[in-house]
């Protein structure tokens, strides 16, 4: 994960809209059209992309949309999980907002606080750019 649970708790306190499933649905429905027009922006979600992709499939399904593809990284999705879908998608939204640049390599921290680099690649999104 990139953010720790204390940071996520602060994000929850700062929310100006309802949290929970309605937040996840709202976020997915807002992000889906953006990613259809600009598929490369999936990289701005970093280690949280796989949870966001699941939310898109569930709450903003669109037949033929590239993010409906089956490619997944279950290991990184588990590493970036914050206990539930809402907290994880909230982290994804913050990461996306804080990113500021489009890049392949993203930092993440294991449960011991050790920093690692994750090379985010989703063939489903990259095929659209080709």
What does this structure look like?
The chain has a two-stranded antiparallel sheet with strand order 1-2. Strand 1 and strand 2 (115-119) form a beta hairpin. Helix content is 52%, strand content 8%. By secondary structure, it is mostly helical. The mean pLDDT is 91. Helix 2 packs across helix 3 (49-59). The protein has helices spanning 5-14, 20-37, 49-59, 74-79, 85-99, 123-129, and strands spanning 105-109, 115-119.
List its salient traits.
mainly alpha; two-stranded antiparallel sheet; 6 helices; globular
Write a short abstract of this structure.
With 130 residues, the protein is mainly alpha-helical. Helix content is 52%, strand content 8%.
List the helices and strands and how they pair.
Elements: H1 5-14, H2 20-37, H3 49-59, H4 74-79, H5 85-99, E1 105-109, E2 115-119, H6 123-129
Antiparallel strand pairs: 1-2
Helix pairs in contact: 2-3, 2-5, 3-5
β-strand amount: 5-15%
- Rg result: 14 Å
Which structural category do the helix and sheet elements fall into? Answer: mainly alpha
Distance between the termini: 29 Å
Shape by Cα distribution: globular
Low-confidence spans: pLDDT under 50, at least 5 residues? none
The secondary-structure element order is HHHHHEEH
Mean pLDDT: 91
Helix content: 40-55%
Instruction: Output the number of helix runs.
Output: 6
Give the strand tally: 2
Question: For the report, how would you describe the main beta sheet?
Answer: 2 strands, antiparallel
Oligomeric state:
single chain
Give the strand order, joined by hyphens, for the main sheet: 1-2
């Amino acid at each position: 994960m990139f953010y720790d649970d204390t940071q996520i708790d602060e994000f929850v306190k700062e929310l100006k809209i309802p949290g929970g499933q309605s937040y996840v649905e709202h976020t997915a429905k807002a992000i889906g059209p953006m990613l259809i027009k600009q598929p490369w922006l999936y990289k701005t979600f970093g280690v949280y992309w796989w949870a966001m992709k699941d939310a898109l499939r569930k709450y903003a399904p669109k037949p033929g949309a590239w993010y409906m593809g089956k490619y997944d990284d279950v290991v990184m999705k588990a590493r970036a999980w914050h206990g539930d879908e809402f907290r994880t998608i909230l982290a994804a939204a913050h990461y996306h907002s804080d990113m500021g640049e489009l890049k392949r390599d993203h930092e993440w921290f294991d449960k011991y606080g050790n920093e690692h680099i994750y090379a985010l690649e989703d063939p489903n999104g990259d095929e659209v750019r080709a």
